[in-house]
Amino acid sequence: MARDLLQLGDTSEARSALEKVMRDADGGTRSYALVLLARIEWLTGSSVRALELGEAALSSTTEPVVEAEVRIEIAFLSKADRRRGLEHARRAVALLESSSNEATEPLLARALAALLFVECDLGLPLAPGYAERALALAPRVEPQPVSERVRYYIGNVLWQYDDLDGARPLLEASLRAAQMEGDVGSLPLVLDQLSQLEVLAGAWGEARGYAQEQCNEAALSDQEMERLWGLETLASIDAREGRLDAAQARIEDVLAQSRDVGDPMTIAFALRTSGFIALSAGDPGAACDALTEATDIADRIGLASPAGLRHEPDHVEALIELGRLDDASSVLDRLENRGRRAGLPWARASTSRCRALLSASRGDLDGASSWIDKAVRQHSDLPMPFELGRTLLVQGAIHRRRKEKRAATEAFERASALFDELGATGWGRRARDEADRVGSRTRSRSGLTETERRVAQLAASGLSNPEISARLFMSRKTVEFNLGKVYAKLGVRGRAELSSRLEGPETSDTF
Questions:
Q1: Do the Cβ atoms of 345 and 158 come closer than 8 Å?
Q2: Cα 291 versus chain centre, distance
Q3: Which helix or strand (DSSP H or E) is residue 507 part of?
Q4: Is the pLDDT of residue 320 over 60?
Q5: What is the pLDDT of residues 108-152, one digit of tens each?
Q6: In Å, what is the CA distance from 441 to each residue of 209, 245, 412, 485?
Q7: How far apart are CA 273 and CA 275, in angstroms?
Q8: Are 254 and 232 in contact (CB under 8 A)?
């Protein structure tokens, strides 16, 4: 009855029913009741408490098959401690393989899916053949809720290994099944995975639709964690589409509620998006603070895969903007090593882009050029157009510094076209501004170059140095350097005097 109520989305009644069962139950019945309570806690409260309830269920049974089933559930719910989840998943597989028969095959399929699920978060390579074996063992009609079925979990795993095309049909089929079967309780979880997948794929309209529906369904089912994750995804989309104020307001609310709940995974996800928003707004200091905390949480709970939060490239960029090049190098080494271990194409491509940025920051433009060309090739092979656009922006900036005007213009124009197609208005505008800066250096009667004039105008309008840095796609030190030259050429001492000294018409000369 409690499981049926959970599927119908009546989480509160399911909890009440289970609490009644717990008063007199023992053995396997008590174990199953505790596992369902753990799932409810995971959906509505905290993954820490869910793990505690799950492990308490083990003490109520001595039957190997029941023990295996409980361990499978614990593995899936162990977001607060993935290392312990791995132990439970491996033990479940071992128990079921030692007594394998036709009746236990569906359970073995779930055990294999649980093992893949946990290994994915731990940053281990995708075990060859496990996904295919799990799908082959799973029955055509699985009795459990959609969000506990093998196809759902394998879809979840595949997109995190960058196989978006392989994951999408499994998750879309899961969504259709939940809708057709009236499995209201599973809808938020399936919608969550589809929205995150489509954010990566650049299908932001579809992603927004999934995330909004996730929030609505989660609210109806009292699934607080899923509602917060949906809001976090919406903030991420807002930021990519250039609505930074809306994104900031939304993520601050999500982060405050996540801290109140105390769930580490939810806090980490909110922090990764908070960091991206801050970086996009030209505040590398705030970005670095958020992303450092996200890393600390990920390390504590065992979320070792770069695909878990996908935040390290933003962290590297923030550290470079702050001039903390040694720290940036350390984070980059970590991204490279973990990405290589997990076999993630996205991590390899992001590593190359970050190596280019770091090389350019150290004045090694030849090395930067080699790295960024490699990054563009790698990102071009991935179905992640926003990441390719960001990489092309870096490529254009490096070509411009090398005085390769035609190549710089082509890179910026490619980036602009990608961003416009995605609906990333702020990023598209940035790419067009960068393209406009290529090819000539304008000089006013006061001797200001075009770059100096742009920096001066933005400073006079009230923008801070980090904001100017983000707007013009240059480092904060470069902004400070150009402002210093502006003050010297115009004979002023600060921003307040700039407006009256700036001129309109300029003449131009080439580099």
A1: no
A2: 11
A3: strand 507-509
A4: yes
A5: 999 999 999 999 999 999 999 999 999 999 887 677 899 989 999
A6: 45, 33, 17, 15
A7: 5
A8: yes
Tokens in use for 4?
Answer: 């049926």
Contact assessment for residue 451 and residue 481, using Cβ atoms and an 8 Å cutoff: no
Q: What's the rounded Cα separation, in Å, for the pair 241 and 289? A: 23
In the chain, count of helices (H) and strands (E)?
Answer: 28, 2
Coil vs helix vs strand at 221: coil
Identity at 493, one-letter amino acid code: R
Torsion of CA 413, 419, 425, 431, to 10 degrees: -30
Helices 312-321 and 325-342, interaxial angle, to 10°? 170
Mean pLDDT confidence for 82-102: 91
Q: Which pLDDT belongs to residue 230?
A: 98
Query: Angle of helix 224-240 relative to helix 187-201, nearest 10 degrees?
Result: 20
Segment of 9-18, 203-212, 417-426 carrying the highest mean pLDDT:
203-212
- Summarised one tens digit per residue, pLDDT across range 281-302 is 989 999 999 999 999 999 999 9
The type of residue at 369 is S
Write out the two tokens for 284: 């590398």
Six-digit token string for 296: 């600390």
Q: Which of 410, 407, 377, 506 is nearest to 450 (CA)?
A: 506
Q: Mapped to the 3 state alphabet, what secondary structure does 80-139 carry?
A: CCHHHHHHHHHHHHHHHHHCCCHHHHHHHHHHHHHHHHHHHHCCCCCCCCHHHHHHHHCC
- For the four alpha carbons of 5, 11, 17 and 22, in that order, the dihedral sign comes to positive
Q: Could you give the 3-state DSSP secondary structure of residue 443?
A: strand
Residue type, 396: G
pTM over 0.70: yes
The C-alpha atoms of residue 499 and residue 502 are separated, in whole angstroms, by 6
Nearest of 91, 163, 97 to residue 134 by alpha carbon: 97
Residue 30: is its pLDDT beyond 80? Answer: no
Which residues on neighbouring strands pair with residue 131, listed in sequence order? none
SS (H, E, C) 349-415: HHHHHHHHHHHHHCCCHHHHHHHHHHHHHHHHCCCCHHHHHHHHHHHHHHHHHCCCHHHHHHHHHHH
Mean pLDDT in the chain?
A: 88
Residue 510, judged by CB atoms within 10 A of its CB (0-12, 13-18, 19+), counts as exposed
Distance CA 391, CA 73 (A): 40
The pLDDT-based confidence of 442 (bands split at 50, 70, 90) is very low
Rounded to whole angstroms, the Cα distance separating 272 from 265 reads 11
Contact 69, 82 (CB under 8 A): no
Give the bridge partners for 508, in sequence order.
442
The answer on pLDDT for 62 being more than 90 is: no
CA proximity to 173, closest of 156, 308, 162? 156
Tokens (6 digits) for 255: 């982060």
